[in-house]
User: Fold this.
Amino acid sequence: MLSIEQLDALRELTNIGASHAATALSQLLKVRVNLKVPSVEMVPFQRVHSLNGDPSTLVVAVYLKVLEECPGKALFMFDPESAQNIASFLNESPVSQDLYNDEMALSSLKEVGNILLGSFLNALSRLTKLKLNFSVPAIAVDMAGAILDAVILDGGYLEDWVFIETKFAGNKVRGTLAFLPDPGTLDNLLGALGL
Amino acid sequence: MSAMINVGMAEIKVTLAPHRLVTTGLGSCIGLCIYDPVTKVGGMAHIVLPMVTSLGEGDQGGKYAVTAIPLLVESMLKFGANRYRLVAKMAGGAEMFSFPGQSSVLKIGERNAETIKEILEDTGIPLIGQEIGGNFGRTIQFDTESGDLWVRTINHGERTI
Assistant:
């Protein structure tokens, strides 16, 4: 169990990391990006499936694995309409009606996700002085439930997860940034913060 | 009236016609349906991983293929199913994300499907329909009246097996 002090510290850490991600995104897209208050929650694995609301909701998810001293899973789930707007802005193209088969749009979204998650993770690393590295990003356009189950099972074991998330709000950009620390990572993060 | 019974991650549910068993958004998990066409007893297990991965988790038999299948069969027999008439269908087991060079050891969806097939074979339950693999999620609905398993996807159409 996490103490209130530890939860506050993790929330603050997430908030700073997410602010870096939001800044990177607003520079890239030239729009304002608002952040909601981050949440840090211990989630039984059975509930992970519906963390983003209805598990059948369509999302565009960019996922990467975090390695070294802070292993875990980092995920950005775009709301599909905002994913379409972002891709159309970056590619100076009309809004894609078939995102799933639009290689160009998917590749830009993958890169946007990479920049977002990268800024978040680099901030996390700077604040905690923990070394971290991450995989290349992968992208999927599908049901939120299917994406979340694949993410938590990637590694082949089953745990209840600490789910750290921040929602991005605004006219153009809506989505959820999530970090799921692997077992042990939370201790590393809290240890680095002196808690 | 036919009720929709939701089967969440690691859950096992058994019912009788005319009710339907539903699982929404399967990724690498597998929805395994077992059915007795005569008594119309139908069951579904939402299987998460092939094998038990850590000790002290015996209380949650629905998680793993190795423990979920015997539990599902056992509760179906209690509902009046006949062991020798049981048939199985399954869907799910996708790899939602692909990373270059990822070894097959980590392909959970594929391992789930293989393990389930082996156990069904050992148990003597014929697998009469499957819709597995790929890189897309599935929502499934099992109709205990007809024994049909309806599989829906977002970008890969829908089919009944």
Q: What stands out?
A: The mean pLDDT of chain A is 89. The helical segments of chain A are 4-29, 45-48, 80-91, 103-128, 144-153, 185-192.
